[in-house]
Amino acid sequence: MQLRILVTIANFGVKNDQYLFRLLDEYRTFPAHVDVIVLSNVEKDCGKDVQVIVRKPAGNPWTFPFAHQQLLAEQVNSYDLFIYSEDDTLITFSNIAAFLRASQALLPDEIPGFMRVEKLPDGGRSISTINSHFHWDVDSVVRRGGDVFAFFTNHHSASYILTQDQLRRAIGSGGYLVQPHQEQYDFLVTAASVPYTQCGFRKLICISDIENFLLPHLPNKYLGQFGIGDSDFRAQLDALLEIASGVRPAVALMDTDSGAYQSRWSRHFYQLDDPELMAMVPRNTKTLLSFGCGIGEAERRLVESGVQVTAIPLNSVVAACAERRGIPTIHTRLAGINEALTGRLFDAILISDLLHLHPEPAELLRMLKQFLKPEGALICSVPNTVDQPLLWGGRTVSRGPKLAGSSAAALRQWFSSAGLRWEAAHSSVGERARWQRRMGGRILPELFAKRFIVRGRTYIHQTSLEIPA
User: Fold this and answer.
1) Strands (E), 328-466
2) Which has the closest alpha carbon to 44: 74, 20, 69, 77?
3) Which of 6, 220, 313, 409 has the fewest CB atoms below 10 angstroms from its CB?
C-alpha cells in the first residue's frame, strides 16, 4: 500500500523561492503519494501539483506559519505521514524512511528528531543546530531497538514529521492547535517546535544513524555566526555512544539554564575565544583550573602560552571537545567538587559566566577558593542581569526565579562574603550598546555593561578598585 504524505511549507515573500522550488522538486521524487501545501503571504505559481494558500496576518508577519497546524489537523484521517518545514530546509525520502524505522523503536511519547547542517566552502559542514546554550542532555542517552538516542535541548530544526497516530496524540493533548505565541523561542521557531514543547512528546536524535537525521539548511546563512564543525560534532557523538556503552560517565556539572525569557543569560557551551577574560589571567600563572569549561578553545590558547590547564567541563559530552584540544578534564557534578579536587592547588581558577546561575554565588566562590594557592587569583565573568529594556528589543527581561541578579554591587558582595579581595575589574559593553553608553556617560555605566569581569585574590591588601566606566 502506497504511503500517503501531506506536506506543509511556510514561505514568506520571494527571497527563498529558489530553495522552495528545490524542496518541491525533491518531494516530487518520493516513491509515495505526496500532496504539498505552500503557506505564503504572497501569490505565487509553484506548479499545478502544489496548492498555495495565501495568508496575510495582521500584526507580526512571523505569526502566519502557525496556520499549518489547522491544515494538518483537518486532514488527520487522510494521510499516513505529516510534514511541516520552513522553505529552506531539505527533507529527503531517506530521512522519511529513517524516521519511520526509528518511530517503531521509540516509546509512544518519543519522536525521532532532526538537526540542521550547513555546507562549508571547503566541502566540510557546520551543524547549525548546535549553538549558544543548547547542549546534549547527558542523562537522556538510551538504547531503543538496537539504536542509541539522546535529547538535544534545541528543539528547533525548522521542521518536524509526525505519523498519523502522533498527530492525533498531539491534537488530543490540547497543545497543538494553539494561537501564535512566543516564549522559549520566537514565533517562527515556536511554530516548528510545538509537538515537542507543548504536546508532551520528547524529541530524540538517533545518534547511531545520525546521517539520516541531518537536514541541509540550503542558504548556509549561519556560517561564521554559529554552529560547530564536524570534528567537534563527531567528538560529541562518540562521547554519547561511550555513555551508552558505560565507558564514559553521564555527568553534568550544574544547571546552566537561566530560566529567563528565551534563556537569556544561560551559559553558552561553544565560545571559541574570550580575549577580555583571558587578559585577566595573571602572566605568572603556571597552573589553572577552568571551572565550567565548554569546548575548550580558550583553554587551548592558555596551554599554548605555557599554562598547565585542568578543566571541569560543563558536562561529559562537551568535555570530549575540550579533550580533543588536549585539555585534561575531570568529570564531576557540583556536589563532588571537593572529592574530585582533593589535594589539588592552582595558581588561578577561571569561572566563565556561571556564578549567577548558582543559588548561592558567594558559597560557590568560597568552595573554590580552598583550591587556590596562597595569593592565588580567582577570575570570574558574569553577565549584567539588570533589566535592560533598551538593549533587549524594547522588552524588559525578567530574570526568573532561578537566576541570581548579577550586578557590580552584587559581585562586590559575593567576593567580600567569600573572603576574596578585588584586584582588578572590567566592564564589557557589546557593540549595540556603545552609543547608548556614550549617551549615559559615567552616570549609568552599569546599565549599559554587557558583563563584568573581576579578578580577586586570596590574600588581603589595601587596593580597592571600582568597575571602571
Assistant:
1) 346-352, 372-383, 421-428, 451-457
2) 20
3) 409
First to last CA, the chain: 71
Grid cell at residue 12: 514568506
Residue (of 250, 145, 133) closest to 185 by Cα position: 133
Residues 284, 398: Cα–Cα separation, whole Å: 41
Segment 174-192 mean pLDDT = 91
Q: Which residue in 187, 184, 178, 159 sits closest to 96, CA to CA?
A: 159
| Contacts within 8 Å (CB) and 24+ apart, 168-176 | 168/76, 169/108, 169/199, 169/200, 169/201, 170/194, 170/195, 170/199, 170/201, 171/73, 171/76, 173/198, 173/199, 173/200, 175/199, 175/200, 176/69, 176/73
Question: Helix H segments across 174-291?
Answer: 187-191, 194-197, 230-245, 275-278
Element (H, E) at 35: strand 33-40
Average pLDDT of the residues in 29-57: 94
Q: Distance between CA atoms of 182 and 250, rounded to whole angstroms?
A: 32
- Strands of the sheet with 159-163, listed across from one edge: 50-54, 33-40, 4-11, 81-86, 159-163
The CA-atom distances, in angstroms, between 235 and each of 22, 136, 147, 297, 316 are 32, 12, 18, 14, 11
List residues bridging with 86 in a β-sheet: 10
CA within 13 Å, CB half, 86: 23
Beta-sheet strands, E only, within 267-365 = 287-293, 308-313, 346-352
Instruction: Quote the pTM value.
Output: 0.91
Dump pLDDT digits (tens) for 402-422.
556 667 778 888 999 999 988
